[in-house]
Design brief:
It contains nine helices and six strands. By secondary structure, it is an alpha+beta fold. It has a single domain, classed as Glutaredoxin (3-Layer(aba) Sandwich). The strands form two sheets. Strands 2-1-3-4 form a four-stranded mixed beta sheet. Helix 5 crosses helix 6. The protein is globular, with a radius of gyration of 17 Å.
């Protein structure tokens, strides 16, 4: 994966439907903004539903959302309040759109990251069904560096689907441990950084997630490394 470990760029393997990945990305982005440090995020799909051969269960995602949102209220997340029939059964279309947005004519890496952030906000904070194209394109229309019309045309052609499946196959290798897994130049690699958590038992039998701590200093360390790589 050395092709994506360019100075100033972070490669993030994740699923949009993974609350831990969304926490990591929020921490990285917000810390970079506070430091006024420009970074690029190269998103790679870790599609949980392909790994597990089923939609990611709401009874697993929702307790994770609760413990994370309670620990980091600035996220603005909430449990699903819309009709149960509207709950996203798949994140593949959203993951594909983020990949499609990487095309220079659509948005490039910057636009792709903006779309990723907008889709996560739509799901976790606004309870939108990001499984459907209209919601994906509504999120895209709010992104400064995304050409929503170009994205719509790309989605019609199935852009991004082959990339998601290719990345899924790559993610089955030993180097990528799950969602999220971050890589950067200088040999940086971290799976679910800063998180101290565990499930109290099998979620299929009533087990619940417990977040014992979250150390945000990992983001400062990573940004320091990126700044050094850029000669700052």
């Amino acid at each position: 994966m050395s092709d994506a470990r360019e100075p100033g760029t972070v490669m993030v393997w994740s699923d949009i439907g993974c609350p831990w990945a969304s926490l990591a990305l929020h921490t990285l982005r917000s810390t970079a903004r506070e430091r006024e440090q420009d970074i690029l995020i190269d998103h790679r799909a870790f599609p949980l539903e392909l790994f597990n051969s089923q939609p990611t269960p709401k009874f697993i995602v929702e307790p994770e959302i609760i413990v994370i949102a309670a620990h980091r209220p600035e996220l603005g997340w909430r449990i699903w309040s819309g009709p149960e029939s509207d709950y996203p059964s798949t994140t593949l279309p959203a993951l594909e759109a983020v990949q499609a947005a990487k095309a220079p004519a659509v948005g490039g890496l910057r636009g792709s990251d903006e779309l990723d952030a907008a889709l996560r906000h739509a799901f976790y904070a606004e309870n939108r069904c990001i499984s459907i194209p209209s919601e994906i394109l509504d999120a895209a229309a709010k992104c400064e560096h995304v050409d929503a019309e170009a994205l719509a045309k790309a989605m019609e052609r199935g852009a991004g689907r082959a990339e998601v499946y290719e990345q899924w196959r790559t993610a089955q290798g030993p180097e990528i441990q799950g969602s999220p897994h971050l890589f950067a130049s200088g040999g940086y690699a971290a799976h679910n950084p800063g998180v101290l958590a565990e499930w109290t038992g099998d979620p299929n039998r009533g087990g619940l997630p417990r977040l014992d701590g979250y150390d945000v200093s990992w983001a400062q360390s990573l940004l320091d490394l990126l700044a050094e790589g850029n000669g700052r």
